[in-house]
Hints:
Elements: H1 14-31, H2 43-66, H3 92-108, H4 111-115, H5 117-140, H6 142-150
Helix pairs in contact: 1-3, 1-5, 2-3, 3-5, 5-6
Amino acid sequence: MMATADHAHVIASPPLIAAAAMLLGAGLHYLWPVPLWPWPHAWAPTAACFAAALTLAVPAVRLIWRVRSTVLPHRATTALVISGPYRFTRNPMYLATGLLLAGVAFTMNSLAMLLVIVPWTVVIRHGVIAREERYLEGKFGEDYRAYCRRVRRWL
Length: 155
């Protein structure tokens, strides 16, 4: 009998999924260049999205590295991280990626790029997060279930 690899078996690397969403959004914008607003740029929402993304992602990654675990879903998770941004959301890095996609949409002034966040969210939720949740529950049991009861998936 073959041993099952100790990782979440996600459908693809989350950064690749985000890159695909950006390429899709850029292609749709080229074919359907509908702006979000009549002026060329909206710096305040763009800056807010990028700042919020960094505020979530940097501490999340640092915490995972501090416990000597990994951010790579095709590698074994060695610790359950529940502090820092993980106190407010179980998926700070994916939330940060969504904010990054919104920031790109605002930078491009592109409705198409903004709308791509919807299919990206569906793919991340079902192809990545659901698989990671099953994996983490199997690996950490009641500790992970208790964490899920305390902290929402997104916000």
